[in-house]
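Exercise 7. Given the encoded structure of a 511-residue chain, write a plausible sequence.
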């Protein structure tokens, strides 16, 4: 939601994208996701991962450690500017959890067979930086001990201190180099069958432990390491946890009338926050690669459907889709750009406990709800709690976005359109050639010579106007004199989109 760049979150985003390209059938070949690089013969998912990995390389200090965070120098949030007018930035101190996560993500990317083939120079650089980061970790642990070398900066990466990130780093260094010393360290640091590796005693495959288990279990399947180099007993433990996590998600989806994998552990205490159905479907999608069961596939689909609008409030929890999209979201960009609608493609929390505290209204909205969300008898229905309101408990980070994209990509790669060529297309808005008078209707038209706009839904926005869904023409009434802006986003059922922006001037006396 904010512009802050957390090393750990970048690393987990990279993990999801690289793992998807390596392990999910057909996903590495997706080259039509609408990126600027689409159509160049290289994996779109890996190019997204590379963008983030290149950022990680810049976060490494000369001693091999990685800084924890890039942040505004003089305040907590850049809450009133767009990124191109952002604050002077600083980095926060290095610590072992951020360093271990960066080491793991860079080593994983460097040893991806497809990435090595498509980006050999970057792969070599990433492995070099991962080795330097590992040396930093080894020196810190040798000097201060494993626990003593850890320093908490924020809650990010602190669930298991740095233990899960260290295990993940050891795993990826082993898979990238084949050095058995890393495997011995991994086995010493991480027992996949231990209940101590579950968050809150029930959440399997959380953060670094999940990354390590997935990478190890799929190492031979993805061609990263020969099966003869893997420890058979340890491999069986990792595989068992992956399937158990998939079964947890499956059971939760089947227990829900709406097919979303929301856990009973949270539901029984009437608590929800930062829950994203497509993100939770990721563990089911991983299990599906090991055991392609029909009920796994059905659960993946029901979770994506819930997020897409098949829910009690008929609301899409992904910006840029649906005919009644959410306008108010926790996003500094969306709060400060000129548009009413937020940027497309951002996931929103699918289930929320209730209204969040607002600076100008406090808890007034929650107090107005009847029946009360906190009522002990017949409270407001849990899945029906939604409002077009700023709510930090529905805020996503890039990890949620990447894991959700992974679930969707796994399905997209199995469709007939997975090889449909697509990069982008130029579009333009035809505006009046003369300055129309203020307070009089104006009609503009969207044109795109490279594509057929028939069948596309067009979302229009204009200065001081509410968003409007329609077709290629749009009529609105400007209310001010001077320069007026207008924008259009057209999208087709297969996911293709084109965008255009234009401006014109109105004439007349100022009110």
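Solution.
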């Amino acid at each position: 939601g904010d512009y802050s760049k957390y090393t750990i979150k970048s690393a987990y985003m990279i993990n999801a994208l690289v793992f998807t390209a390596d392990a999910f059938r057909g996903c590495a070949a997706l080259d039509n996701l609408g990126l600027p690089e689409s159509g160049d013969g290289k994996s779109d998912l890996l190019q997204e991962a590379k963008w983030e990995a290149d950022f990680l390389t810049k976060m490494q200090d000369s001693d091999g450690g990685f800084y924890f965070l890039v942040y505004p120098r003089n305040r907590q949030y850049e809450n009133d500017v767009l990124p191109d007018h952002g604050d002077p930035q600083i980095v926060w101190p290095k610590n072992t959890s951020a360093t271990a996560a960066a080491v793991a993500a860079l080593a994983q990317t460097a040893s991806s067979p497809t990435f090595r083939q498509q980006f050999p120079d970057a792969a070599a650089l990433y492995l070099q930086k991962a080795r330097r980061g590992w040396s930093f970790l080894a020196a810190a642990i040798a000097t201060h001990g494993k626990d003593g070398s850890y320093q908490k900066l924020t809650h990010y990466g602190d669930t298991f201190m740095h233990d899960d990130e260290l295990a993940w780093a050891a795993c990826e260094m082993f898979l990238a180099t084949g050095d058995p010393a890393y495997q011995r360290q991994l086995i010493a640091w991480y027992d996949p069958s231990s209940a101590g590796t579950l968050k809150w005693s029930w959440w399997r495959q959380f953060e670094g432990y999940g990354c390590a288990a997935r990478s190890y279990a799929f190492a031979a399947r993805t061609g990263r390491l020969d099966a003869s180099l893997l420890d058979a007993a340890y491999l069986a433990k990792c595989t068992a946890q992956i399937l158990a996590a998939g079964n947890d998600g499956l059971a939760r989806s089947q227990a829900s009338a709406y097919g979303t994998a929301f856990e009973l552990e949270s539901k029984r205490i009437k608590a929800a926050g930062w829950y994203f159905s497509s993100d939770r479907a990721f563990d089911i999608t991983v299990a599906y690669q090991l055991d392609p069961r029909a009920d796994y596939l059905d659960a993946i689909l029901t979770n994506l459907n819930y997020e897409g609008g098949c829910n009690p409030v008929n609301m899409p929890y992904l910006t840029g889709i649906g005919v009644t999209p959410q306008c108010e979201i926790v996003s500094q960009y969306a709060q400060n750009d000129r548009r009413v609608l937020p940027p497309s493609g951002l996931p929103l929390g699918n289930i929320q406990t209730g209204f969040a505290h607002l600076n100008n209204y406090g808890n007034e909205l929650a107090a107005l709800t009847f029946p009360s969300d906190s009522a002990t008898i017949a409270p407001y229905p849990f899945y029906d709690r939604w409002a077009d309101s700023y709510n930090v408990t529905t805020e996503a980070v890039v990890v949620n976005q990447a894991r959700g994209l992974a679930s969707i990509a796994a399905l997209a790669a199995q469709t007939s359109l997975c090889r449909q060529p697509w990069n982008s297309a130029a579009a333009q808005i035809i505006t009046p050639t003369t300055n129309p008078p203020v307070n009089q209707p104006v009609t503009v038209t969207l044109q795109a010579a490279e594509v057929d706009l028939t069948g596309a839904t067009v979302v229009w926005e204009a200065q001081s106007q509410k968003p409007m869904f329609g077709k290629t023409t749009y009529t609105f009434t400007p209310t001010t004199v001077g320069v007026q802006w207008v924008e259009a986003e057209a999208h087709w059922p297969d996911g293709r989109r084109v965008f255009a922006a234009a401006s014109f001037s109105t004439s007349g006396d100022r009110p």
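Remark. The chain has a mean pLDDT of 95. Students should compare their own answers with the one above.
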